[in-house]
């Protein structure tokens, strides 16, 4: 029984990690539940199949259009959406027979729907409801005589959407945040498991393990960003949100650092000294190899113990076993019980201790303190540091609440004009292809502009929609032939397609388009208008709509991909400079600032840069050199962001920790980095500058120390200098692909050869 429970928990952890917060699952279940409930009620009322289709589509729109996080806001938007939907269906029925007036109104409606995004989630939802319900009126060929039944259908659809949202599949910010925390725990456990696999992997399996390691690290970072996006609504107050945010950031950074040090250790010790774990093998080994084997065995044991702490990160876990394991790992932070081994191996043990501390802090932030009676002095000291940080965080949150700006809205006029022009072209072209199905071209043009900000993004999205549509046509032909005249089997398959559409939407736009087109083939079957010619026309209208969207994006107020990527790159560099300068200042004894917020802004900017460079790095991008250059720049910035976050995490310990002290000499070490970042940022903004990128001497050699002391491996100053050195190398590495002049100072090169060792 216990084995079955552990197996079930492992399977659930993998699923939870694949869908953070179960957001995709809940969206799919909520939409399918609303449609199923609407179909049931409409069938009881005795509605025709046409109105069943209209009700199903209206319930789907009323459910997926609303994206607000607060329950009260969702209810208000849903209530406002009903009169918008009634007005849209009425105008659709009235203008159905008036071709020119209907087309003009449709373009005006599209402009208003896109422009309304400037009013936040509610404006976006109401605009989307108006557009989609008008589209439903075209799809079912609504007439004035059918309006009373259509009004009843819409009322029932919206009521069923409300029941599904607030009763059947309820969603509150607190529940979402709790599930995101569980997903973070599951992904953290996966990452540590892959780090353990790295030590056990044979030489031929290392590449595969490294791929898994990179993927799990990226997924952990994704979960951390999603938690940060839900903190304000899902916690009781600002201080609780800031505390959880910091604990999540600490855990993420500690896990990342552990992975980097394990990679370093594997490279430094050679594969055989870390993977020698055969029985009776130590008898024939030389003493040095035996010490390495013993250290490797102990490191595997401690990684499994760390994994156990993460897996058991739950409030109902009691007993003395876990506190004992935790306390033993925490001792590595204070050099207690540190196994013999090379400096690289011992760094790994210290990183295990830091990760155990981060896990303890995460548990305290989520569940409170429950087992302090088992604390060792090291564990008690960690708790004291956490308490001091919590007091500091509460004060910072109170100050931030007074100065927080509100009401900031991003202008969307350009997008509204582009979509309107593209839709007008799609209407004209669509009418030539079909006077009955022209609206598919308009829908495609509308969709390719959603969540895009440059011409390249629109091109890639149009290509993916066309690909998904072609594959969906093939599936639609097969499904329509299999269903025949069985109405309820067709509706059941429609529900499966709807679930697949919402579950895969964040993962693959092409896959989502596949499910949409397959669903449409089934809906045409229900309306007795299905034919192979109709589905082929669907592909033609989709291609036309994508082409019209691309033409509008290129000719009307265009935003070039290179211009957008340069803007995002400049933002990332500015955020990177903020984090580095603030962290170095605090490590040098300067005033405390909220470094976690700065690091979160850096992560957000870097995520936006990744999105903006996707058209450049996509396989269909024609310029191979440009594709490689974009990937190289993003990779360097991701590495630099990791070291900046690590600096920030270390600097956060200075005000409250008894073991981490400020070092005034570090102020000098960060100047060259910030100088180089400023030069690169100015170059990206096309500003005139006479400076050059400085390189040469290592960061450590720049410290002004008359004592000429030797930095101890594992010390805080050593760790800070290593992160600064990697940052310096990463920023200098950006100069070549970005075309920034580089000045190598020969007089410092000799100093770099001696003082830079070990960093």
* Average pLDDT level: 78
Structural class per helix/strand content? mainly alpha
- Cα-atom radius of gyration: 29 Å
Alpha plus pi helix count: 27
Largest sheet: 2 strands, parallel
What strand line-up does the widest sheet have? 1-2
- The dominant shape is globular
Strand content: under 5%
Number of strand elements: 2
Percent helix, as a range, is over 70%
Give unreliable regions as ranges: 270-285, 397-410, 705-711, 745-759
Q: How far apart, in Å, are the first and last alpha carbons? A: 51 Å
Order of helices and strands: HHHHHHHHHHHHHHHHHHHHHHHHHEHEH
What does this structure look like?
- This protein is an all-alpha fold.
- It is 75% helix and 1% strand.
- The chain is built from 27 helices and 2 strands.
- It has helices at residues 2-18, 23-45, 49-64, 71-94, 99-115, 120-139, 147-168, 173-200, 206-234, 238-275, 287-311, 321-330, 343-367, 377-403, 413-433, 439-448, 455-483, 487-504, 509-526, 532-555, 561-587, 595-617, 624-653, 666-669, 671-684, 716-738, 746-755, and strands at residues 693-695, 742-744.
- It has a two-stranded parallel ribbon.
- Helix 26 (716-738) links the parallel strand 1 and strand 2 (742-744).
- Helix 3 (49-64) crosses helix 7 (147-168).
- It is globular, with a radius of gyration of 29 Å.
């Amino acid at each position: 029984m216990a084995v079955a429970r552990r197996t079930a928990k492992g399977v659930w952890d993998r699923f939870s990690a694949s869908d953070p917060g179960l957001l995709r699952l809940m969206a799919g279940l909520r939409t399918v539940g609303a449609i199923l409930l609407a179909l049931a009620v409409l069938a009881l009322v005795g509605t025709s199949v046409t109105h069943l289709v209209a009700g199903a589509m209206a319930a789907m729109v009323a459910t997926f259009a609303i994206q607000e996080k607060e329950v009260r806001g969702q209810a208000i938007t849903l209530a406002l959406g009903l009169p918008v939907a009634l007005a849209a269906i009425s105008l659709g029925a009235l203008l159905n027979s008036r071709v020119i007036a209907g087309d003009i109104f449709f373009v005006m409606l599209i402009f208003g729907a896109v422009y309304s995004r400037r009013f936040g989630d509610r404006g976006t939802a109401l605009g989307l409801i108006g557009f989609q319900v008008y589209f439903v009126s075209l799809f079912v060929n609504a007439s004035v005589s059918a309006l009373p039944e259509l009004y009843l259908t819409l009322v029932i659809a919206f009521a069923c959407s409300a029941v599904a949202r607030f009763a059947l599949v309820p969603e509150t910010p607190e529940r979402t945040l709790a599930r995101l925390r569980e997903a973070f725990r599951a992904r953290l456990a996966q990452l540590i498991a892959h780090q353990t696999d790295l030590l056990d992997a044979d030489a031929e399996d290392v590449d595969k393990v490294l791929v898994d390691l990179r993927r799990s690290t990226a997924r952990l970072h994704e979960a951390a960003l999603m938690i940060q996006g839900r903190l304000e609504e899902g916690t009781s107050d600002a201080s609780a949100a800031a505390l959880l945010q910091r604990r999540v950031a600490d855990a993420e950074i500690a896990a990342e650092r552990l992975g980097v040090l394990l990679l370093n250790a594997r490279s430094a010790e050679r594969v055989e000294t870390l993977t020698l774990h055969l029985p009776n093998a130590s008898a024939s080994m030389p003493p040095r190899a035996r010490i390495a084997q013993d250290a490797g065995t102990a490191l595997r044991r401690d990684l499994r113990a760390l994994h156990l702490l993460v897996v058991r990160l739950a409030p109902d876990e009691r007993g003395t076993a876990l506190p004992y394991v935790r306390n033993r790992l925490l001792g590595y932070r204070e050099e207690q019980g540190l196994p013999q081994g090379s400096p690289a191996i011992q760094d790994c043990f210290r990183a295990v201790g830091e990760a155990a501390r981060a896990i303890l802090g995460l548990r305290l932030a989520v569940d409170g303190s429950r087992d302090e009676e088992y604390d060792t002095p090291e564990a008690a000291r960690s708790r004291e540091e956490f308490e001091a940080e919590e007091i500091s965080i509460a004060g910072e949150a109170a100050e931030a609440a007074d100065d927080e700006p509100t009401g900031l809205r991003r202008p969307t006029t350009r997008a509204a004009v582009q979509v309107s022009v593209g839709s007008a072209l799609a209407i004209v072209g669509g009418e030539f292809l079909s006077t009955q199905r022209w609206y598919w071209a308009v829908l495609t043009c509308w969709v390719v502009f959603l969540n895009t900000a440059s011409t390249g993004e629109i091109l890639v999205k149009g290509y993916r929609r066309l690909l998904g549509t072609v594959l969906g046509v093939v599936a639609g032909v097969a499904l329509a032939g299999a269903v025949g005249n069985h109405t309820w089997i067709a509706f059941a398959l429609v529900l499966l397609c709807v679930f697949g559409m919402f579950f895969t939407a964040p993962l693959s736009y092409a896959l989502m388009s596949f499910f949409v087109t397959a669903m449409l083939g089934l809906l045409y079957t229900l309306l007795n208008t299905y034919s192979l010619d109709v589905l082929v026309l669907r592909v033609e209208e989709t291609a036309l709509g994508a082409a019209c969207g691309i033409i509008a994006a290129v000719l009307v107020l265009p935003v070039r991909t290179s211009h957008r990527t340069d803007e995002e790159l400049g933002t990332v560099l500015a955020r990177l400079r903020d984090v580095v300068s603030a962290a170095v200042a605090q490590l040098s004894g300067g005033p405390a600032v909220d470094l976690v917020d700065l690091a979160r802004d850096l992560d957000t900017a870097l995520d936006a840069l990744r999105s903006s460079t996707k058209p450049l790095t996509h396989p269909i991008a024609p310029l191979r050199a440009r594709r490689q250059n974009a990937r190289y720049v993003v990779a360097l910035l991701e590495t630099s962001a990791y070291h900046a976050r690590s600096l920030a995490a270390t600097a956060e310990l200075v005000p409250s920790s008894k073991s981490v002290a400020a070092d005034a000499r570090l102020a000098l070490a960060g100047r060259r980095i910030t100088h180089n970042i400023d030069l690169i940022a100015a170059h990206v903004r096309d500003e005139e500058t006479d400076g050059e990128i400085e390189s040469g001497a290592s960061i450590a050699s720049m410290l002004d120390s008359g004592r000429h002391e030797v930095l101890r491996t594992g010390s805080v100053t050593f760790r800070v200098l290593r992160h600064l050195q990697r940052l310096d190398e990463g920023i200098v590495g950006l100069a070549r692909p970005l075309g920034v002049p580089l000045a190598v100072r020969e007089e410092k090169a000799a100093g770099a050869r001696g003082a830079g060792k070990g960093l």
